[in-house]
Amino acid sequence: MSSPRITTPRQYGGGHFGATTDRRRSDMRMPRFFKRLFKFPQMDFEMAVWEMTHLLIAPKKVFKSIYYHKQTRNTWHRPDPSFTYLLSFFLLLTSFAWSLAYTPSFASVVKLALMFVIVHFLLGSLVVSTVVYYIVGRLLGPGIAGLPGRRRQQGLFGPPGGPRGADALEFGYCFDVSIRAFFPPYVLLYIIQYILMPVINHQNRASTFFANLLYLAAGLYWSMITFLGYNALHFLSHTQLLLSPMVAWVVIWLVCTILGINLSTWGTRWMFLGVKG
After folding, report:
1. Is pLDDT at 236 greater than 90 in this prediction?
2. CB 33 within 8 A of CB 79
3. From CA 248, how far away is CA 130, in angstroms rounded?
4. 215 burial level (CB within 10 Å; 0-12, 13-18, 19+)
5. What letter does residue 144 receive in the DSSP assignment?
6. Compositional bias (Polar residues) at which positions (predicted)?
7. Long-range contacts, stretch 43-46, CB < 8 angstroms, 24+ apart
8. Is 81 within 8 Å of 33 (Cβ atoms)?
9. Distance between first and last Cα of the chain
10. Could you tell me which of 132, 188, 193, 269 has the fewest CB atoms within 10 Å of its CB?
């Protein structure tokens, strides 16, 4: 009689217990975005440059590839901080140009660099993405009175414990949309406005018109890219409501232009808030 054969349990078995354990371990892991913060060789900077270019000329193309990303990574959020790093670097260079032109002191250079990168870009995008995460999640996901919608879960950087492919609005994706919506206003207000300052920084009708037109374009671009980002998620309803701020931008532009209020004057004061003086 042959002796019974005793085998050790399989470490990576496909049973229910093993799958549950692996899922719990994966839930306790740090989101991939944070794990890749300093893995520069793995970052796709070429893709980030492509996105920046198309955000200006064809923004709809930027969000067309998210379905492929969802199928391969099981998350709408792209855990690649290359876009954030690249735009932060551009803001740093831009802050140097503004500082050297208007506040040529070492303390002002440092303050403005921190203001542009930390406050305007990172903190501003974080606040916007947090607000939109809850507004879009509650109004455009489950639906509101008179407007049908779909009920779904919300997660931070991925579907929270749901089945693979579950529809979930992720905070990471909201942040992705916010930092991409920031790029066209950055080009218009931090670069083009800087170049045109000798022309538009005057209290006359022509300067006021073109300066205000620059701010109108920035607001419209921001609203359009925000709309396109959430409109790409098929489980959200009535995303066209996100275009409503465009009406406010047009009204503000029209009122300020008629009254002769140069938005460039107020905009640059806000840029240098806490830097001068």
Report:
1. no
2. yes
3. 21
4. buried
5. B
6. 1-10
7. 43/80, 43/81, 43/82, 43/85, 44/80, 44/82, 45/82, 45/85, 45/86
8. yes
9. 94
10. 269
State pLDDT tens for residues 52-93.
999 999 988 888 766 555 555 657 777 778 899 999 999 999
Cα-only R_g, the chain: 23
71-74-79 Cα angle (round to 5): 110
CB-count exposure of residue 262 (10 Å: 0-12, 13-18, 19+):
buried
Residue ranges of the domains in the chain?
39-271
Cβ atoms < 10 Å from Cβ of 205: 10
Write out pLDDT tens, residues 126-158: 999 999 998 887 777 644 444 444 444 455 555
**Which amino acid is located at 90 in the chain?**
F
Of 30, 76, 3, 28, which is closest to residue 231 (Cα–Cα)? 76
pTM, two decimals, is 0.77
Question: Average of pLDDT values for 216-225?
Answer: 96
Tokens 């045109």 belong to 196
Alpha helix stretches (DSSP H) within the chain: 16-28, 32-35, 45-57, 66-73, 82-102, 106-114, 124-135, 171-185, 193-200, 205-231, 245-259, 263-271
